[in-house]
């Protein structure tokens, strides 16, 4: 019955308002009416259709409204619970006590749905229904309050308190509705005010909705569901992520940070202080950190409800067991009983519900805290990165060139230091919250256990600095390990670059040993670092156990209070809470110290001098904003207004001139008050539309002059004036700068594409031949991530950019160097003198090519930083005849050198073409299956094969892995046993009887023994996991290295260089450093979750029913999350690299970017790249929060169900109370470990991908070093004569490629000198590769001194033959090592080889002699010297067969002649095969072979072939003479 069974429940004798049942009944009416009105509106379609997110709106009071709704629902749920309890204590059943609250609860849920749909449909007039509902509802509640007071209730009664809270919430609802009505006037007014839709929501491809969704979706990340499902079904791309919201864009964050930094600099300058960069950080980005910290504080405080509820629940059960709980009413009012707040809070079931709600709210707030901190950290990093880049665009080149700031240092500022500051921002909420958390935990421990608990907590606090010292020491050891890693990687990189030479000389094992030694040093350092990791893991596991043992042991002696189950397990929970902040402390402090150091490095960089380019900035398309830009630059650089005066003086440039320098004195050093003058007394004019040549000897100041007029140098005195119209500049720097993009983009440089103009520029710069051999033509990527070009090719591309650019003035700094005579002449005639002059562009050309002096309209002659002559060619020669004579002599000398220079660059082109020819068919085959390969890669990315896990286990040792699992299981088993022991111990205190001394000793010794066993197992497990991880990394690296070094040369030609390096750098680092700790964390979290479930199942088997559902939910979540998380992590990694590359390439081409006045475009490009990375990272962070919230909620349901099951079982059975406390203690840990478990699974899948990649490289095919049978091991002196016979030989580079030599028959006599020539691709170099079995000799055979080389083991064959390759490769080490890396020869033999190679005077001049250090690549020797060292290396081997594979292609004529002279005199008795890059080099050979189409087309003595006028050899000789 609604009003109960008593007649008084229906009596209205004292008035209707005095009848409680009547008031409750009419109180339901507004809620029912609202439901009747609202449900049809929802069903009719308002907001139920799929409305585009561009219509998402947040009405005024949106967040407050949602917060009030959640609070109201909680209060109503408490009112329902209060009604049920009151009904339980009443003399009869009264539905009126809880049914109205239930109806109100349902109506409140509908109001939330209704409001959300009104917002989505943007139909605010429907809110009038809500306004009317709130008004009537508050009236009904006031009537109810009146009735409760009439019934005699006071503030001690919970029902009265809850009603007051509900009235207050209804009042706030009314205020929100009225405020919205008055603001937007959507009703009752003649004109309404529309709602603005934010710009981001207007973009259809803006998919990051977190800032714009409603509060409920915001805190639960509900909007991410769509992406998580998509990520599970198919790979996620950047297109799926859409655009970044404006508030997160790099430009917005840059402006925010820059404005604050500017104000701080102005304030500091006024007050004579140093600007504080930390103030800038927190002024610009601190608001979100404050919110994050507040959420963190509240979340941490809510965490302490857990131990209080556990203690209360256990106390409730103890009271039931002792019969102290009475269900009789202590106060009755008209047959109704109303529970007090105290009685409500003492009920175990209520406490379980409150614990559930507190856990939900705690984890919701914690996830919001994490999200805000990480979000603002990435915004701060974007702002810092943008500011560093903007500063870089204005910094002086002097700061880079004189060593004050290296490119690496600046990149570290952007990549490392900005990252360190970001990490500290992430930890900021922890830093503020930790002290509060520790203090509250200590106070509550004292409240629970007194001084013994304080002593136990003190142990944790004391061990905290120990953890910090361990963390610091571990950081130092990791840096040491990184140094060894870099050394190992450097050696491998050098080995990889010289892999062809290593195979030709059979030195694979020698260099493999060098890498192994470096790896062993790295492993040794890792093991030392592992000691500290073991200590850290051990302390983390052992500290709470030690604190618990000490606390319970001391409690017996210091306290007379009983060690009850409630007190015991509340203390355990508090210790678990206390351990977290204290062991996070070292990590937070390390992050703080690193951030402080990073900020210290950042501040001086922001203060370095900037270039003063006021006289250069003003252009035709910049006239409107030039002054603003200039003033900003000057203000930030501290330069006064004199630059503006120079800008104004630019208007005074004489007509028909584009530039005038008057009395100019320039210096590079901008920071010095008295800089060294580099250019002095500079006076000249540049005529419009004319070509001005700048000439002079080396170091005369020509390049400095160019930089001076471009504003790169400091103007000490004088004036530089540019014309104000038609002054757009294109520029070729001396070294020819390229950026990472395809070839076409490097040329058009942001200009509109014009095919005809482009083709003409390509032709003028002789680039078509290069484009034809590139794998994707002019769409081929070049630069750091693409194909490296030769210096000559770089210059031609750079000049092509200057020609293509629609400029008025073209400045070319030494564009003809590194070009052969034909290329240089063609570029000059077709490009500079042709195209540029036809377009009447002004040309400023710096060159050493004096033959073009007569083509110049104006000549500037420089010497020692001064312009000595200016005028036309005729004017200067008339003025200074001696200078004219010197020019004539120089022109004659240059003509003699041009042929040598031409051969160098032409050979570089041929060499590149040969390499492309070898892989041309391969690329075509790849293109056919490109789409299938992309699909396969996408599929592989979705999952890691199980074989990768097995590979890692086998590498670590199956036995050790089994032992690790057993020890880990024993560790957790012992720890659980200890907790059961403690539960049994604490359950004995229920009846109040104190334990005897023997009983106490039995329990305390048993608990101590189990605890010490757990500590020992934890220590043992930590040692095993770390050492197993190190061993696995060592074995995987060793196997991969051994496999790669034996791979065929074809594999190196077709496998991207960067992919191989990645296996030995990032993948190896992942396996070494991340995988072991992730595996340990995964094992620990899995066993902890298993222990929690088992403990609760043991306490009450009914727990298994919802546990199965929860585990299924966990399975679904981890499946969705892991797939999407891996995709997002992959995108995050991919989008980081472009930022680094763009930064690096801008620093290297700084003067070029500024000359083109293209800073804005490059800044925007960086911003776009940062935005891409920020977008991927934000989605990854939000995905983590999406998972965290759901796992936290699952964990909260575990807590609720564990509490309800335990309570029910304890009330209606004889389950020990201590087990209930134990079950709740474990249940409270589930959410944390579930969260970490899923993330560990995702991390280990990502890291196992590295194992998969490494194992793939470990299974590749290798060269056939030995046959299965039939191997021939020739005698030590083989080959003793040097006879070579080719019988029907056909060779190819791979089985799927066509033959490069076809049915060749040839006999070379012992000691014969044979020259080989032919066109590119004719097969001449393939012959040398066939001799060394570097390619597939699939038909016929090669016989050397009677032995088929196919039967000779590869190592033996290659060690008995000698080759001097076209690339003069030297390795880092010593001269001795480069001549004899195996250490087989004595000093006399080495000195003889050095002397024969004409290098003895050079080597003797070094104090260390043969032990002189050789830098990487032999960079401390010239190309000629390096080639002579290669000759000495060949002589040391004393082989009977010598192959010279275009060995003189890259050396000058003098060195070339020396090489041929030495070979002729020192290899008299050897068979010498010379593959010529220039036909005259083989005229003195005994015989000449001309190859064509893979066959020998001519074979005879040179003299005989020359007598034949129609021979190919004769035509080749004539072409080279």
Which SSEs are present, and which pair or pack?
Blueprint: H1 20-44, H2 62-89, H3 99-121, H4 127-150, H5 158-184, H6 199-202, H7 215-220, H8 225-233, H9 238-241, H10 250-271, H11 277-303, H12 305-321, H13 341-346, H14 348-392, H15 397-401, H16 407-449, H17 451-497, H18 499-504, H19 508-558, H20 565-606, H21 614-617, H22 626-637, H23 642-649, E1 657-667, E2 677-687, E3 691-695, H24 702-709, E4 714-722, E5 729-732, E6 741-742, H25 743-748, H26 755-764, H27 768-773, E7 781-782, H28 791-804, E8 809-813, H29 821-838, E9 842-846, E10 858-863, E11 866-871, H30 873-879, H31 881-928, H32 930-942, H33 946-956, H34 958-987, H35 997-1045, H36 1049-1054, H37 1057-1064, H38 1066-1099, H39 1104-1148, H40 1150-1155, H41 1159-1212, H42 1217-1257, E12 1284-1292, E13 1299-1308, E14 1313-1318, H43 1324-1331, E15 1336-1344, E16 1347-1348, H44 1354-1360, E17 1362-1364, E18 1373-1374, H45 1375-1379, H46 1387-1396, H47 1400-1404, E19 1413-1414, H48 1423-1437, E20 1441-1445, H49 1453-1466, E21 1471-1475, E22 1487-1492, E23 1495-1500, H50 1502-1507, H51 1512-1520
Parallel strand pairs: 3-9, 3-10, 5-8, 8-9, 14-21, 14-22, 17-20, 20-21
Antiparallel strand pairs: 1-2, 1-4, 6-7, 10-11, 12-13, 12-15, 15-16, 18-19, 22-23
Helix pairs in contact: 1-3, 1-4, 2-3, 2-5, 4-5, 8-39, 10-11, 10-14, 11-14, 11-16, 12-14, 12-20, 12-42, 14-16, 14-41, 16-17, 16-20, 16-39, 17-19, 17-20, 19-20, 19-35, 20-34, 20-42, 26-28, 26-29, 30-31, 33-35, 33-42, 34-35, 34-38, 34-42, 35-38, 35-42, 37-38, 38-42, 39-41, 39-42, 41-42, 46-48, ...
């Amino acid at each position: 019955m609604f009003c109960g069974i008593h007649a008084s429940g229906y009596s209205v004798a004292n008035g209707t308002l005095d009848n409680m049942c009547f008031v409750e009944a009419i109180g339901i009416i507004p809620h029912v009416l609202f439901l009747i009105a609202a449900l049809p509106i929802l069903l009719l379609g308002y907001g139920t259709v799929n409305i585009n997110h561009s219509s998402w709106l947040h009405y005024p009071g949106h967040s407050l409204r949602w917060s009030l709704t959640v609070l109201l629902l909680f209060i109503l749920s408490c009112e329902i619970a209060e009604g049920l309890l009151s009904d339980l204590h009443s003399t009869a059943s009264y539905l009126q006590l809880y049914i109205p609250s239930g109806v109100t609860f349902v109506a409140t849920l509908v109001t939330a749905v209704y409001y959300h749909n009104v917002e989505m449909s943007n139909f605010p007039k429907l809110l009038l229904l809500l306004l009317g509902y709130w008004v009537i509802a508050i009236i009904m509640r006031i009537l109810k309050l009146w009735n409760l007071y009439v019934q005699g209730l006071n503030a001690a009664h919970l029902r009265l308190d809850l009603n007051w809270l509900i009235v207050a919430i209804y009042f706030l609802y009314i205020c929100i509705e009225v405020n919205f009505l008055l603001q937007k006037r959507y009703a009752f007014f003649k004109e309404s005010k529309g709602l603005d839709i934010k710009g981001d929501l207007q973009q259809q491809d803006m998919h990051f909705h977190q800032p714009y969704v409603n509060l409920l979706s915001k805190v639960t990340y509900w909007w991410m569901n769509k992406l998580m499902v998509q990520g599970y079904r198919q790979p996620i791309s950047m297109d799926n992520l859409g655009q970044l919201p404006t508030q997160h864009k790099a430009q917005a964050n840059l402006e925010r940070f820059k404005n604050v930094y500017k104000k701080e600099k102005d304030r500091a300058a006024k007050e004579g202080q140093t600007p504080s960069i930390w103030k800038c950080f927190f002024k610009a980005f601190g608001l979100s950190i404050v919110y994050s910290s507040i959420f963190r504080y509240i979340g941490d405080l809510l965490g302490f409800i857990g131990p209080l509820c556990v203690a209360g629940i256990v106390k409730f059960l103890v009271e039931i067991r002792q019969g102290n709980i009475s269900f009789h009413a202590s106060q009755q009012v008209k047959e109704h009983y109303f529970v007090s707040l105290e009685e409500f809070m003492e009920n175990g079931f209520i406490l379980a519900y409150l614990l559930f709600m507190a856990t939900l709210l705690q984890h919701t707030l914690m996830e919001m805290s994490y999200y805000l901190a990480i979000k603002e950290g990435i915004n701060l990093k974007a702002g810092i990165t943008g500011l560093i880049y903007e500063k870089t665009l204005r910094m002086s080149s002097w700061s880079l060139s004189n060593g004050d700031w290296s490119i690496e240092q600046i990149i570290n500022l952007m990549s490392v230091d900005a990252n360190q500051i970001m990490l500290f921002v992430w930890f900021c909420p922890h830093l503020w919250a930790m002290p509060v958390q520790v203090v509250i935990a200590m106070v509550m421990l004292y409240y629970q256990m007194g001084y013994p608990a304080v002593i136990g907590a003190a142990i944790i606090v004391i061990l905290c600095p120990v953890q910090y010292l361990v963390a610091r020491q571990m950081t130092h050891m990791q840096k040491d390990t990184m140094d060894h890693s870099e050394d190992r990687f450097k050696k491998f990189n050098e080995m990889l670059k010289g892999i062809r030479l290593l195979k030709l000389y059979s030195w694979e094992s020698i260099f493999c040993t060098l890498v192994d030694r470096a790896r062993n040093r790295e492993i040794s350092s890792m093991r030392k670092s592992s000691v500290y990791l073991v200590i850290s893991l051990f302390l983390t596991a052992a500290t709470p156990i030690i604190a618990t043992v000490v606390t319970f042991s001391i409690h017996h002696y210091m306290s007379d209070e009983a060690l009850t189950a409630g007190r015991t397990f509340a203390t355990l929970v508090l210790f678990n809470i206390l351990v977290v902040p204290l062991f996070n402390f070292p990590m937070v402090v390390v992050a703080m110290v690193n951030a402080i150091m990073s900020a210290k490095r950042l501040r001086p960089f922001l203060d370095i001098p900037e270039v003063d380019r006021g006289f250069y900035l003003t252009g035709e398309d910049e006239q409107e904003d030039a002054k603003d830009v200039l003033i900003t630059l000057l203000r930030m650089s501290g330069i006064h207004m004199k630059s503006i005066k120079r800008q104004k003086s630019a208007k005074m440039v004489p007509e028909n001139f584009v530039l005038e320098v008057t009395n100019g004195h320039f210096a590079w050093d901008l920071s010095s008050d008295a800089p060294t003058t580099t250019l002095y007394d500079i006076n000249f004019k540049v005529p419009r539309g004319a070509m001005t040549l700048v000439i002079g000897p080396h170091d005369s100041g020509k390049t400095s002059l160019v930089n001076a007029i471009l504003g790169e140098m400091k103007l000490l005195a004088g004036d530089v004036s540019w014309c104000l119209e038609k002054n757009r500049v294109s520029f070729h720097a001396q070294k020819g700068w390229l950026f990472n993009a395809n070839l076409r983009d490097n040329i058009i440089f942001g200009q509109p594409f014009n095919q005809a103009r482009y083709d003409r520029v390509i032709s003028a710069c002789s680039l078509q031949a290069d484009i034809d051999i590139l794998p994707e033509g002019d769409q081929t990527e070049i630069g750091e991530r693409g194909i490296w070009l030769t210096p000559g090719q770089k210059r031609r591309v750079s000049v092509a950019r200057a020609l293509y650019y629609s400029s008025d003035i073209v400045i070319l700094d030494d564009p003809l160097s590194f070009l052969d005579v034909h290329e240089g002449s063609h570029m000059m005639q077709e490009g500079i003198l042709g195209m540029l002059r036809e377009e009447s562009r002004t040309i400023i050309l710096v060159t050493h090519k004096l033959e073009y002096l007569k083509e110049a309209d104006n000549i500037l002659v420089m010497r020692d930083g001064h312009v000595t002559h200016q005028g036309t060619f005729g004017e200067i020669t008339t003025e200074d005849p001696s200078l004219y004579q010197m020019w004539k002599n120089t022109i004659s000398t240059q003509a003699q050198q041009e042929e040598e220079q031409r051969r160098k660059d032409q050979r570089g082109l041929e060499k590149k073409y040969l390499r492309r020819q070898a892989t041309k068919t391969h690329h075509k085959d790849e293109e056919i299956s490109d789409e299938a390969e992309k699909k396969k890669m996408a599929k592989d990315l979705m999952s890691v094969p199980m074989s990768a896990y097995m590979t890692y286990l086998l590498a670590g040792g199956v036995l050790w892995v089994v032992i690790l699992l057993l020890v880990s299981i024993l560790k957790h088993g012992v720890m659980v046993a200890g907790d059961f022991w403690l539960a049994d111990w604490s359950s004995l205190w229920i009846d109040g009887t104190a334990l005897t001394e023997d009983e106490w000793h039995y329990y305390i010794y048993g608990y101590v023994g189990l605890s010490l066993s757990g500590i020992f197992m934890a220590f043992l497990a930590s040692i095993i996991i770390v050492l197993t991880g190190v061993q696995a990394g060592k074995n995987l690296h060793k196997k991969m290295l051994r496999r790669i070094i034996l791979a065929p040369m074809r594999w190196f030609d077709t496998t991207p260089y960067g992919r191989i390096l990645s296996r030995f750098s990032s993948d190896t680092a992942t396996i070494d450093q991340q995988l072991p700790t992730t595996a340990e964390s995964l094992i620990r979290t899995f066993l902890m979750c298993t222990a929690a479930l088992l403990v609760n199942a043991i306490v009450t088997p009914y727990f298994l029913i919802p546990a199965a559902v929860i585990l299924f939910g966990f399975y679904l979540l981890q499946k969705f999350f892991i797939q999407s998380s891996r995709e997002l992590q992959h995108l995050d990694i991919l989008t980081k690299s472009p930022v680094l590359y763009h930064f690096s390439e801008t620093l290297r081409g700084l003067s070029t970017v500024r000359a083109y006045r293209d800073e804005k475009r490059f800044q925007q490009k960086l911003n776009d790249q940062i935005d891409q990375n920020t977008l991927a990272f934000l989605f990854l962070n939000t995905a983590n929060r999406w998972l965290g919230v759901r796992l936290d909620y699952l964990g909260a349901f575990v807590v609720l169900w564990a509490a309800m099951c335990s309570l029910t079982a304890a009330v209606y059975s004889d389950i020990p109370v201590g087990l209930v406390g134990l079950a709740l203690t474990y249940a409270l840990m589930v959410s944390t470990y579930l969260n970490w478990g899923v993330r560990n699974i995702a991390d280990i899948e990502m890291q196992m991908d590295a194992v998969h990649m490494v194992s793939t490289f470990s299974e590749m095919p290798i060269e056939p070093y030995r046959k299965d049978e039939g191997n021939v091991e020739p005698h030590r002196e083989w080959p003793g004569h040097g006879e070579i016979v080719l019988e029907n030989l056909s060779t190819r580079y791979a089985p799927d490629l066509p033959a490069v030599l076809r049915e060749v028959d040839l006999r070379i006599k012992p000691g014969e000198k044979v020259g080989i020539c032919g066109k590119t691709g004719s097969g001449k170099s393939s012959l040398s590769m066939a001799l060394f079995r570097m390619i597939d000799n699939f038909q016929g055979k090669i016989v050397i001194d009677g032995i088929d080389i196919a039967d000779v083991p590869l190592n033996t064959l290659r060690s008995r033959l000698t080759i001097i390759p076209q690339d003069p490769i030297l390795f880092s080490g010593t001269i001795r090592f480069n001549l004899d890396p195996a250490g087989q020869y004595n000093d006399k033999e080495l000195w003889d080889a050095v002397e024969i190679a004409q290098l003895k005077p050079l080597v003797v001049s070094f104090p260390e002699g043969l032990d002189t250090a050789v830098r990487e690549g032999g960079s401390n020797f010239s190309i000629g010297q390096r080639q002579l060292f290669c000759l000495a290396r060949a002589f040391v081997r004393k082989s009977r067969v010598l192959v010279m594979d275009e060995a003189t292609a890259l050396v000058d004529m003098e060195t070339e002649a020396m090489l041929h002279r030495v070979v002729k005199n020192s290899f008299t008795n050897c068979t010498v095969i010379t593959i010529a890059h220039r036909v005259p080099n083989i005229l003195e050979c005994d015989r000449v072979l001309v190859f064509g189409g893979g066959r020998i087309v001519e074979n005879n003595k040179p003299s005989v072939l020359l007598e034949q006028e129609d021979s190919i050899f004769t035509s080749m000789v004539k072409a080279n003479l």
